[in-house]
Design goal:
2 domains; alpha/beta; 3 helices; 4-stranded mixed β-sheet
Length: 233
């Protein structure tokens, strides 16, 4: 960092994704929910072109909860996560859309969906209108945020599961739905948005959201580095 060129490289590297933030195992996950002696992970790959698109959260538990229980607990506790569902299909809860407020400035959908205090948009409740009950077509009102939805035409969320880290020796297997995956210690649950109904692509290597600097932090890092150059030039 004693030379201008090297400092520029450091700044550029800080403003892009870093391998140090990648999640390979539970020890790489910064944000955890729940309590108990057992651990599991939830990986969500939005596949939306907003990088990083694949994110991971940790979950602690006792007993034998399902992946749906983990999903509900994490989404209820994390105020940046949102989901559009139908809670009363003949097969259980249908997952239409998932959103993530990347920059913490609020989240909304352009179809007028009403988000409940728990972060869920349930199209089966009185809060849903004919318009926002649709399962396809909505986008986040903030282009910086993650959101993908689909069921009939625009793709859908594919469930994957693994008994150990699929990024460190384990392997993803296609699942039958969150309600049908019973969690055991070491389990991983994956959700990948597939726009072509291909069932072939599992979530990419994720990052832990808590480890990615916010834009303001990156700006401060860049300014601090520039000041260092000025002092040492």
């Amino acid at each position: 960092m004693f030379h201008r060129l090297f400092c520029c490289v450091v700044i550029v590297g800080a403003l892009t994704a870093s391998p140090a933030w990648a999640v390979f195992d539970f020890g790489d996950i910064n944000t955890w929910y729940g309590s108990g002696a057992n651990q599991a992970a939830l990986v969500i790959d939005f596949n939306d072109g907003n990088s990083p698109a694949s994110l991971a959260w940790g979950y602690r538990f006792d007993g034998s909860p399902t992946a749906e229980d983990m999903f509900n607990d994490i989404f209820t506790a994390n105020t940046a996560l949102f989901a559009k569902i139908d809670s009363a299909t003949q097969y259980g809860t249908a997952l239409f859309g998932i959103g993530y407020d990347v920059d913490g400035d609020g989240f909304g959908l352009d179809d007028g969906s009403i988000i409940g205090p728990d972060g869920f948009i349930d199209t089966n409740t009185s809060a849903a209108t004919t318009e926002n009950a649709n399962a396809d077509g909505a986008s986040a009102t903030d282009a910086d945020d993650h959101y993908k939805e689909g069921w009939f035409t625009d793709g859908f969320w594919v469930h994957w599961e693994a008994s150990s880290s699929p990024y460190n020796g384990g392997a993803w297997a296609s699942g039958f739905g969150l309600a049908y995956q019973t969690l055991a210690d070491g389990a991983w649950t994956g959700l990948y948005f597939d726009p072509v109904f291909g069932f072939a692509t599992a979530p990419a290597e994720p990052v832990s959201p808590g480890s990615v600097p916010e834009p303001a932090g990156l700006f401060a890092l860049a300014v601090g580095s520039l000041m260092l150059v000025r002092r040492r030039a």
